[in-house]
Amino acid sequence: MAGEAPHHFPPPTGLAHCKTAPVHSNLASLPFKGFENALPRSCTEKKESPKCDLKLDRLSESEKKKIIEKLVKIQNDGTVEVDVTCNAHVASELLELDAVDYAPLDAEEIKQTPFGYSKSVPRLKIAMLVVGTRGDVQPFIALAKRLQEFGHHVRLATHVNFHAFVKSAGIGFYPLGGDPRIMAAYMARNKGFLLSGPAEISLQRKQLKEVIYSLLPACTEPDLDSGAPFRAQAIIANPPAYGHAHVAEALGVPLHIFFTMPWTPTNEFPHPLARVPQSAAYRLSYLIVDLIVWWGIRGFINEFRRKKLKLPPIAYFSTYHGSISHLPTGYMWSPQLVQKPSDWGSLVDVVGYCFLNLGTKYQPPKELAEWIQQGPKPIYIGFGSMPLEDERKIMIIIIGALKETGQRGIIGRGWGDLGSFSEVPVDVYLLEDCPHDWLFPHCAAVVHHGGAGTTAAGLRSGCPTTIVPFFGDQYFWGERIHAQGVGPIPIPISELSVERLANAIKYMLDPEVKSRAMELAREVQNEDGVAAAVDAFHRHLPPELPLPPTMLDEPDNPNPFHWLLSLFEKCCPPFAS
């Protein structure tokens, strides 16, 4: 993007304003004076710095691969092990990629800065781009509903699987490509998104291509039901919607990231998808994960930029990597569980959990309500959207552990379809679907995969929690639950056994564990993550909002991109060591 002229837009005259936008007047936290300072050159490009002229970009493809090989090993569980001792010089140069400085304004500058949203915010057309499972989509529905209460027109673009879910909340819907069941199965088989064979690469390539090529229409196409025109004036996205920053750049609109797991580099803990033996390399682990992903998708993204967005291509190291450090970012978890790291600047907010509160209007089936009343509070066990390789084996383990501990159990069938081929005793109830915020208060404890939304619901309900992680950030949340003393050490799904699950249930039934869980629940219940998220979005809007271009060229047919195959075909032997 070097040499690209800045985007200049007239002020959004004539835009209606939200008269009651929740602004805390915390202007000292704002990292920029105006739109050009906040988003230099384009809406997403990082500040130029002499440090960006890295020697790494002068290397050949094979030399770049060797650099990554020396720093990284990919484990059998799909996580990345980062070891800086083998090549400290390269590690140091890579860290320069994250050297994005946004100095806070001083007091005098704050007084003179004409922030247009201190009393009212323009009513905007906002496109939300959300990739993932139901647990990923649900908090964005809560955020969309609240934004609409302030007069914004929100379109939530996500997988067609969730069309009814989004529309039932009164939110505009636009379909993104990709099937979350296929993507979740891929990630479960490969313990994440990094390790796979050629067949899996082809599968995931198709899914990601469908997602990325649907992002631009999601921001620009008319409503599919009414035909009403829509052109995004701001974008909210989660990081797995790869391509969001490029679409925002092409449209010339601000982008705000929200996510349920850490994605901003920090020195306080490693990337949830990384194993880092040295704490000094925690921050580097975020860049390494970003670079590996970018290496896999860069050819495809650059095709997308050239042919669809009419933007110049991006180099590997110098001018772009997957980090979101330069973008306003809100994390949807309670600071009671993970506080905001001290090295996350004013661009980053930890807003709290964003609950949709589906349970307030839920009417349970008579059979379920009666079963719950027939005995002591049960243990909930379910794995949500996670696929299971051997459902019968997992059911045998669950029933065996419940029998050994003398507990009743509610088993959520989920996408793994638990209980399909199993006989269950009378003290076990098979549950198809039920809002967790209604169900969990009726449970003594919960056992689940560690999805951010399910974890949040369990904590707010005061339930001791056992996390059985499959991949990704589920391990991270399992460790945080154990560190808080409200659950045992997480049990990976591959290590689940009757003995380990029974011991976990006994741990959770300890009165002291229950007391700690209730104390944490009171703290979480006092938070309003949705209000804080809306406030963060409004606070980080530039004072002069750009108007989007009138038209982008109609996208051509997408070309295939080069996925991780080129990297891993040559690098797998050292990764496997």
Model description:
The strands form 4 sheets. This protein has a 7-stranded parallel β-sheet with strand order 7-6-5-8-9-11-12, sandwiched between helices. The protein has a 5-stranded parallel β-sheet with strand order 15-14-13-16-17, with helices on both faces. Helix 9 links the parallel strand 8 and strand 9. It is α/β, with parallel strands linked by helices. The chain has 19 helices and 17 strands. It has 2 domains: 371 residues, Rossmann fold (3-Layer(aba) Sandwich); 168 residues, Rossmann fold (3-Layer(aba) Sandwich). Helix 5 packs across helix 18 and helix 12 crosses helix 16. InterPro entries: EryCIII-like_C, Glycosyltransferase_28, GlycoTrans_28_N, UDP_glucos_trans. Its EC number is 2.4.1.173.
Radius of gyration: 24 Å
Number of helices: 19
Strand order of the largest sheet: 7-6-5-8-9-11-12
Task: Give the total of domains.
Answer: 2
How much of the residues is beta strand, in percent? 5-15%
Name the poorly predicted regions: 1-14, 22-53, 100-119, 193-199, 549-577
> How far do the termini sit from each other?
38 Å
Structural class: alpha/beta
**Helix percentage range:** 25-40%
Might you state the CATH topology name of the largest domain? Rossmann fold
The CATH superfamily of the largest domain is Glycogen Phosphorylase B
CATH architectural type of the largest domain: 3-Layer(aba) Sandwich
Shape: globular
Q: Main beta sheet, described?
A: 7 strands, parallel
The CATH first-level class of the largest domain comes to Alpha Beta
Q: How many strand segments?
A: 17
